[in-house]
Design a protein that fits this description.
By secondary structure, the protein is α+β, with helices and mostly antiparallel strands. It is about 30% helix and about 25% strand.
């Protein structure tokens, strides 16, 4: 399984002005640093909780249909397409009524009732699923996650060599997707 971003988030969960107010920065001299800390905070949070925060599109490649689990793309709002390479090497799109999205954590794509997935070509990444995931816009991101991001930003703004504080992970723990 391999994930590939198709469309990055259009905005960050924390605005530059909000982060600047949190770290008490009053001029524009460190805007680039603070912006990079916002992105780093989002990426850290997304990797830690295995969830995407702001709406984005991803393509996930599989070798076969047997395990279409979307490990770190929760919450999945919709499946945009399911495609596969058939035995003749032709890229084919499954009709939307052939599969179903289970919005669990992690999300899964399964065959619809009474449907059996076709056999894809026996090669790596012969099946891929394109999904839209994330909570929605920045305003839809849970407050505790935003607070964890602000703690991350503030901590690394003040001490640029430090490890991420445990309080960040404590705030994020209820949102963490557990995989086995």
């Amino acid at each position: 399984m391999r994930n590939e971003i198709v469309t990055a988030p259009a905005e960050e969960p924390i605005a530059l002005a909000e982060a600047k107010a949190h770290v008490r920065a009053t001029d524009t001299s460190e805007d680039a640093l603070i912006t990079s800390l916002i992105i780093a905070a989002r990426e850290y949070v997304e990797a830690y909780i295995l969830r995407k925060l702001v709406t984005q599109r991803w393509r996930v490649y599989y070798n076969d249909f047997y395990e279409l689990v979307l490990f770190d793309l929760t919450p999945v709002s919709s499946v945009l397409s399911v495609k596969y390479i058939d035995a003749d090497g032709v890229l084919t799109t499954l009709a939307a009524d052939q599969y179903k999205l289970l919005k669990s954590a992690p999300a899964n794509v399964i065959a619809a009732y009474g449907v059996t997935f076709p056999s894809p070509r026996n090669e790596a990444e012969a099946v891929y699923v394109e999904v839209e995931c994330g909570y929605g816009g920045a305003a839809a991101v849970p407050v505790a996650i935003k607070q964890a991001m602000l703690l991350f930003i503030g901590h690394h703004y003040e001490d640029r060599e430090a490890e991420t504080p445990a309080a960040v992970n404590a705030l994020l723990s209820p949102y963490r997707v557990v995989t086995f």
